[in-house]
Amino acid sequence: MRKIVLVVLLSLPVVLFSQVPKGFSLVKDTAAFKQKMDTQSKIINSIESDFSQEKYLSVMSEKIISKGHFCFKKANMLRWEYFDPYKYIIAINKDKMYIKDNGKVNKYDINSNKMFKSINEMMMNTVQGNLLNNKDYKARIYENEKQYLLELSPLQKGAKDFLKVIQLYIDKADYAVVQVKMIEPSDDYTSIEFTNRKNNQSIDETKFILK
Hints:
Elements: H1 2-11, E1 25-26, H2 30-43, E2 46-56, E3 64-73, E4 77-84, E5 88-93, E6 96-101, E7 104-109, H3 114-128, E8 137-143, E9 147-154, H4 157-160, E10 165-171, E11 177-183, E12 189-199
Antiparallel strand pairs: 1-8, 2-3, 2-12, 3-4, 4-5, 5-6, 6-7, 8-9, 9-10, 10-11, 11-12
């Protein structure tokens, strides 16, 4: 179970940083920011995007770089497909999670496990940029000329075992999440950058079922 949880968290996604991140300043009107994020998430029905993932492990001399394609569709459908340097797929279809590795598919019932359910909610909220609505996280919001930086720290002990902080970089132009960085208690991290994003395109629901 722990292995599966780590796979999900790293495929993505504390004590909040006491100092303002370099190049950013603290957002004063957090209510206005939250309202704009909520409005944006309501008009997004689907997302498709390429992504590049960087994984830093202190025990390794080089970072692990992987690339793939990402799909999201309301309600509660998600697909991470890795193309390079390996082929690997994680798909969520409502209450079911699929993991395909080396041609083998494993299927899990999300609702049968509290941790799975929590991870699923975190992933969905992260995609839509509305983690501010999740009471399991404490937030601090920063901004610069082009982006907002939303830092979220988990409040539940189970989540703290795997996650130190989530950083979401949000484009001010359209309030889209352009980068997600998930930092572990050891300070190892996974950073995912989204490119070529397309909103509200038609996506076949068969993409979210693996066989």
